[in-house]
Inverse folding.
């Protein structure tokens, strides 16, 4: 079941609210593994209504100059200068999740989100933030919010989180790209035999044809794999070392 984070859409807090001490809805943190799953919140407040991580820095500590460690939860203060600095630290740290308004055209968004994050979850509706006493603001935050994952682990957590919104992956690791782009062995062999229009093909010829194939680079035992697919797939051995594709 998706987390219900939203009040009615009638009224909203000013997006340029005077206060910087609005707290993140706890349901968001719960959906990302809970406050305990985050090691550090580098911009918190002594009067926080609940923990957002195992350790918190507050304004008096200045979380911008202290060391960051582990999985970070970041909901930065609402000034463009501080958002820029905190997001810059987050991009360099590259592990955790940030919650900011989805001002996708701004310079910090381009530098430290589009150019650095691993995935985004654009939230459906608008969030209602909380006061230091824990009460939820009647009005929503006045702008759409986005959760931003840094690092592959948090990209996967964000993609699977039960939070209503649209997930957009931004970075892929090489093995994900390879498996998305490379055909299966059976597809690769089907394609090769289709080009031979029903002729029998020798194993030696198949070895030569596949020697430079992307699949063989990832598997030093690729010849064994190729023979296994021939034996199990829609292929028949017509003579010693000679194979044909069985018509569909
Ligand atoms: C939007 S609130 C978020 C609070 C909390 N991180 C959360 O997610 O609920 C931003 C907080 O950052 C604090 N803050 C402002 N400048 C800071 C700094 N340089 N270092 C640490 N915290 C700071 C503010 O006092 C405010 O409580």
């Amino acid at each position: 079941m998706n987390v219900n984070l939203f009040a009615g859409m009638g009224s909203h807090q000013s997006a340029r609210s005077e206060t910087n001490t609005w707290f993140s809805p706890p349901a968001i943190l719960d959906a990302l593994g809970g406050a305990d799953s985050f090691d550090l919140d580098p911009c918190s407040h002594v009067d926080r209504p609940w923990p957002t991580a195992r350790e918190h820095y507050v304004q008096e500590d200045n979380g911008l100059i202290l060391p960051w460690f582990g999985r970070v939860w970041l909901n930065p203060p609402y000034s463009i200068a501080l958002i820029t600095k905190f997001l810059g630290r987050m991009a360099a740290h590259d592990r955790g999740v940030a919650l900011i308004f989805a001002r996708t055209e701004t310079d910090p968004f381009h530098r430290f989100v589009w150019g650095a994050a691993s995935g985004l979850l654009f939230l459906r509706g608008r969030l209602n933030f909380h006061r230091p006493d824990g009460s939820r603001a009647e009005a929503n935050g006045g702008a759409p919010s986005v959760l931003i994952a840094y690092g592959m682990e948090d990209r996967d957590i964000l993609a699977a989180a039960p939070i209503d919104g649209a997930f957009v992956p931004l970075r892929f690791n090489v093995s994900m790209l390879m498996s998305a782009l490379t055909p299966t062995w059976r597809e690769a062999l089907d394609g090769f035999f289709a080009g031979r229009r029903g002729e029998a093909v020798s194993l030696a010829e198949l070895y030569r044809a596949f020697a430079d194939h992307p699949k063989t680079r990832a598997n030093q035992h690729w010849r064994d794999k190729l023979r296994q697919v021939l034996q199990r797939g829609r292929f028949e051995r017509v003579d010693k070392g000679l194979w044909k594709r069985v018509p569909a």
Residues 1-12, 14-18 have pLDDT under 50 and may be disordered. The longest strand covers residues 96-101. The CA atoms of residues 228 and 241 lie 13 Å apart. The first helix runs from residue 26 to 31.
